[in-house]
Amino acid sequence: MLTAQDIMTADVVTVSPETDIPTAARLMVENKYNGLPVISKDGTLVGIICQSDLISQQKKLSLPSLFTVLDGIIPMGSMSDLDAQVRKIAASKVAEAMTAAPTTVRPTTPIDEIASLMVDSQYHSLPVVDGGKVVGIVGKEDILRTLING
Question: What's the whole-model pTM score?
Answer without folding.
Answer: 0.76
